[in-house]
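Recall the central idea of this unit: under ordinary conditions, the amino acid sequence of a chain determines the structure it adopts. In this exercise we apply that idea directly, starting from the sequence alone.
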Amino acid sequence: MKSNYIIKGFQKTVQERFSAQSKALNEACMRRLAQLRVENKDASKEKQRHLEGQILPGIAVYETLKTVMTPEEAFRTVHGYVEAYALSARKMLVGLLRLPGLYRLVPGVSVRMMHKIFNGAAGFSAKEYQTVGGVMRIDMVKCPYHETCVRYGCPELCACFCDSDDIAYDNMHPKLLWHRTKTLGRGGDCCDFGLKVKGK
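Accordingly, the structure predicted from this sequence is:
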């Protein structure tokens, strides 16, 4: 089975903290992930990108960790994996945005990325307010991260993925303003994405 950063983080955690149980825990996690994959095999190719990349591994790891940790500790552990991944993405973005003037393109690029990756075929639904002139203002009203976590009885887990956006995009450049007041995963009625060039 294809691994990813959440699975790798889990494997390191159980080896370091639960070495006597590591084999059994890894096998349990992989069994659960295989089951989740079967249950979601009919999802579109576009949605599978999100399911495979983060959602299903996150659920499998979270459920497995809760067999040896409190729910709170298991959440913090998964959050730590997602946070580290987001910090890595942030470091790359900050480095790229050192190129003169590149920051001005970020809102427009973000809109195109939304349309390409976070679209209806992938299970998202958005209401667009402004996506030109150095401003991106979009409300995400449907999200497969939130819906899948709710479906599997762990709605709180979605906040890990919500937080990763704020970690990666807030203060990525002095002339870019990231703004979000609520998300579906934190109990809001939408995820109100806002990104703009200062002064726009």
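The chain is about 55% helix and 10% strand.
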